Amino acid sequence: MERKIELLSPAKNMECGIEAVNHGADAVYIGAPKFSARASASNSIQDIEKLSAYAHQFYARTYIALNTIIKDSELDDVRKLIWDVYHAGADAVIVQDMGILQLDLPPIALHASTQTDNRTLEKVRFLEQAGFSQIVLARELSLEEIKNIASQVKIPIEVFVHGALCVSYSGQCYISQAIGGRSANRGECAQFCRLPYDFIDGEGNTIAENKHLLSLKDLNLSDHLAELLDAGVSSFKIEGRLKDVDYVKNITAFYRRKLDAILSQSNQYKKSSSGKITYFFEPNPEKSFHRGSSTYFLNGRNADITSFDTPKSTGEYVGKVTEIGKNYLVLDSSTVFHNGDGLCFTDKNGEFCGFRINKAEANRLYPAQMPVVEKNTTMYRNFDHVFSQQLAKKSAERKIAVDILFSDTEDGFSLQLKDEDGNEFTAHFSSKKEKATNAEKAIENISAQLSKLGNTDFYVRSINVNLTDNYFIPNSLLSDFRRAGIEGLIKAREQNYHFVRTKIEPTSHEYPEKRLSYLGNVYNEKATEFYKRHGVVSIEPAFEQKQVESVPLMFMKHCLKYSFGCCTKMQETREQVNKETRKQENEGTGFDNKTESLFLRYKNELLKLEFDCKSCEMMINRLH
To answer: Long-range contacts made by residues 351-358, C-beta under 8 angstroms, separation at least 24?
Structure first.
């Protein structure tokens, strides 16, 4: 059997969701009015209903992010909210809190958020048996780990393929709560990972100064989609529920094209929604917000995952400065620049700077304000004015293929429409039959009039006029036939839309762990009941409920010892040390692998680094 493959796009709001569908998404995930892990991207039930109705026209789905941990006092609101999104036509709810499974829920599919920390086969199997219909794996997994998990479960596996990366394992980051009182598990992350830090040793020596040492490049697995398909991935997820509509359009279109090229070469996979997309621009991920790109840990640990200089968007490489005039720059570039473009660079002091082009004459650029820059400085374009204008207009169109058969009957005519999904509708019309004086022209006119599907969701893939005699049919009557046929086909599609409706039943299989610390994120009594029923004998409250002192606040595979070439386990050569580290070591500010105490400092906050070399993990603790 063909496996249905899903391109899953983010939506900050209804507009983004609709454009995600228009640009090729098979499914869209969007925040609920409350309890979303992106608290600033909430949406009304009315907008969710409108988006769901629009998506379903193309057999695309809507998933509602309700993936925070829940207080006891909020559980009834959550229950009501899930019933509301169910009645609004949502296809699934993405959740983190296991207490939700204890509620009186409608028969709606539940997806396990990446916030449930899905790193092991044992955890994924447990969630599958608990009733989840789809599981989002942790971003840190390798291709082999993904393959191992996907091969041993029956439900669809979802992975992130593009967008921003959290440096900590999802659901296992408490630094924002500890320092700022804003819980990442409650959708209020203050993004301490994007701040600049000083990297110092136990004697106060500075290893790196004012660098974004926890900031990662963005994920881009666009060149590895076929490998992920072979590994068993069914849902390809784009990060970005805080991104604007231009990002959603561009990145969705880019991945749609990539996936379609692969699907067209295989009979193993099938796109899970309907419609052919026509683009009015050329998708290019380099032109949307990104901090540089990496494959993260997909093919093992590598040095090129960090963005130490800036957490801001770098854009596309456009060349190096070859000449500096009084009010202009010249680049060694064949790029077509436009007035209004934005360029950026890192200056000699390591500061990330930018400027707007006031006038472009080929590769001679006149900035609105002349920057302080040197020859051979590498330049990037992080705002393409013309590309932005293209995306501001209608940039894609999605249409469903229809085959039309027009025939005569004993008392009139019939119009049969069959869409690409196999939905059919036949309209019968009683009508007088008038012989045509020009048979060939009459047939051509019938075909032409019935093919005018205009602003509908359909396009004619084939049309067959099968008449026993040559008849003349007025255009007004043909328009009525066409309108009735399309209305009937739309109703047939609505009636045949398939919801995955799953009633969660109580289970009692063993949870992989017998004891849960604060890392279990158990925030309410319903969650406590859930874990006890599944064999957990000791349960500590969530960090947000009872803040624990002197415990790690972040857990990550990113390791500063590795980044700075001092990993004892991996035995990396000096050639794999990143450029910034080499520069600092040449200045005598590096450190060796014998250094025991390492810290990050931001203003008055001092964070201690801990290393679990056996597990290849770094942890961060706050010093009080």
So the answer is: 352/309, 352/310, 352/312, 354/382, 356/383
Place of tokens 């801990």: 610
Q: How many CB atoms lie within 10 A of CB 338?
A: 17
**Residue 520 within a domain:** no
Our count of domains for the chain comes to 4
pLDDT at residue number 567: 87
pLDDT of amino acid 623: 87
Label residues 298-314 b or e (16+ Cβ within 10 Å = b). beebebebbbbbbbbbb
What is the rounded CA–CA span in Å between residue 315 and residue 385? 13
> Are 120 and 94 a contacting pair, CB within 8 Å?
no
- 341 and 477, same domain (yes or no): no
Band of pLDDT at residue 593, cut at 50, 70 and 90? low
Judgement on whether residues 595 and 555 belong to the same structural domain of the protein? yes
For strands 352-361 and 364-367, give the pairing: antiparallel
Q: How far is CA 331 from the centre of its chain?
A: 34
Q: What's the start-to-end Cα distance of the chain, in Å?
A: 58
In this structure, are strands 378-383 and 316-324 parallel, antiparallel, or unpaired?
antiparallel
- Do 137 and 154 fall within a single domain? yes
List strand residue ranges (DSSP E) for 96-205, in order.
109-112, 134-136, 157-163, 197-201
Domain membership flag for residue 513: no
Of 368, 392, 416, which closes a domain? 392
DSSP structure string for 278-336: EESS---GGGSS-S-EE-TTBTB--STTB--S-SS---EEEEEEEEE-SS-EEES----
pLDDT tops 90 at residue 521: yes
Q: Give residue 516's pLDDT.
A: 98
**DSSP-derived pairing of the beta strands 352-361 and 342-346:** antiparallel
Q: Same domain for 182 and 55?
A: no
Task: Print the domain residue range for 78.
Answer: 3-165+218-273
Do 187 and 200 belong to one domain?
A: yes
Q: What is the pLDDT of residues 223-242, one digit of tens each?
A: 999 999 999 999 999 999 99
Confidence bin at 591 (pLDDT 50/70/90)? low
For residues 205 and 225, state if they share a domain.
no
Q: Which two tokens stand for residue 511?
A: 């949870």
Q: Report the candidate in 554, 557, 578 with the shortest Cα–Cα distance to residue 566.
A: 578
Query: ∠461-462-464 over CA atoms, to 5°?
Result: 160
Least Cα distance to 165 among 344, 35, 8, 306 occurs for 306
Nearest to 510 by CA among 155, 112, 127: 127
Q: From the centroid of its chain, how far is CA 62?
A: 13
201 and 235 housed in the same domain: no
398/295 Cα distance (integer angstroms): 30
Are the CB atoms for 621 and 551 separated by under 8 Å? yes
Closest CA to 383 of 440, 438, 344, 428: 344
